[in-house]
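Write out the bound-state structure for coenzyme A.
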Amino acid sequence: MLSDGNITLRRPRSSDAAEVAAGCQDPLIQQYTQVPVPYGIDDARVFIHSKVTDSGWWAEPTWFITDGADQWLGTVSLRPDGAGSAEIGYMVQAGHRGRGLATAAVRLVCTWALRQWGLEVITWRAVVGNDASAAVAKSVGFRIITPVLRLGIAGRDGRQDAWFADLTHSDLQRANSRRAGEWSAGLTARESQVLAAMADGSSNRAIASRLGISENTVKNHVRSILEKLQARSRTEAVAKGWNERLLEQP
Ligand SMILES: CC(C)(COP(=O)(O)OP(=O)(O)OC[C@H]1O[C@@H](n2cnc3c(N)ncnc32)[C@H](O)[C@@H]1OP(=O)(O)O)[C@@H](O)C(=O)NCCC(=O)NCCS
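---
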């Protein structure tokens, strides 16, 4: 299970089948991914069933994107080549697009795969013209390589030209530092100190005494941090701080 405090990526469950089957009726999912067409509930059941066992899951690690309601909102999967590389694929339910779900989910999976699972490179291919997918890959840090791969993707209607991109650990780090620069510009130096103290679990009183300022001033800083990070709680602000690299790893 992977989470950034806003979304959770979890393993598929048999209770997700109806939601997945309904979501995969979407014309863009049918155009740009390899789902069978027509797609029925049995296709969803077979797919989910193939991920239930550990061996099935590790053969092609697959996460379902969920938020507080724990329902299927999308999928991210990796297809490993068994020699340090894997190709990533993703989709988001039509009604939930444009919320940053794919970008956040792909970032979580790539971070896990390159840092913890030990992949050396993650590759991405998309049918030429799939701008939304390319925007997600670019935001995460993938290096888009041109020219196109001629007939680089096999689809149900034959082969199509493809865009290709790759991501290494250093690409991911570069993209994260770029984002951290953009983000930290929004927090003052004092707010960054307060956020770091919040990450230790310190109370406002403890932060005030550590930084030599009044408890009321700390309260104002905390309020401003929550606003700037668009967080509803201290826990969420700290989670975003980790995710956005505003906080140093211990
Ligand atoms: C690609 C897909 C997963 C994106 O999901 P999403 O949750 O909407 O993605 P996000 O909200 O994280 O980001 C979408 C990005 O695409 C951009 N975008 C969306 N539609 C676009 C379009 N038609 N043209 C150009 N950019 C577009 C958004 O502006 C955003 O970019 P930004 O962050 O730079 O502003 C979703 O559109 C989808 O499921 N498509 C069908 C399946 C598919 O194509 N999968 C990928 C196969 S390689």
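---
The first strand starts at residue 2 and ends at 3.
The chain is about 45% helix and 20% strand.
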